[in-house]
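Re: weekly structure request thread

Next one in the queue (119 aa):
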Amino acid sequence: MKAFQRVEYELVRLTFKADDTLPLGSRTVDVSRVEFAIDNGQKINTTERFHINVKEMEPINGDVDYDGVVGIKDVTAAVAAILGNPPSRFFAAYADLDGSSEVDIRDVMLVVGIILNGK
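Done, posted below.
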């Protein structure tokens, strides 16, 4: 029988979003099935239990829909809010980038600037 040396690598960093009902703090998560395909075509299936720490995302200016990314969805959400139809996940505090206490076209342009400049 061939002996194998146990070597641990970080293969995957798992990032996920949960709905607002997931309480903050330490949790144990059961993963029912994970399948990895290796370059040579071999597949590895595993079931694991691991521990996670659920914490609130740090707010990002311009992340109008609070999904962790400043992107085109934030621009459309800000425009919709200006037109009187804000989406259900609209956070005005992260949309009012010029500090005028209202979301207007200047804020939309600042969100676009964040996207174009990568900051």
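The longest strand covers residues 25-37. Strands lie at 25-37, 43-54.
Next request, please.
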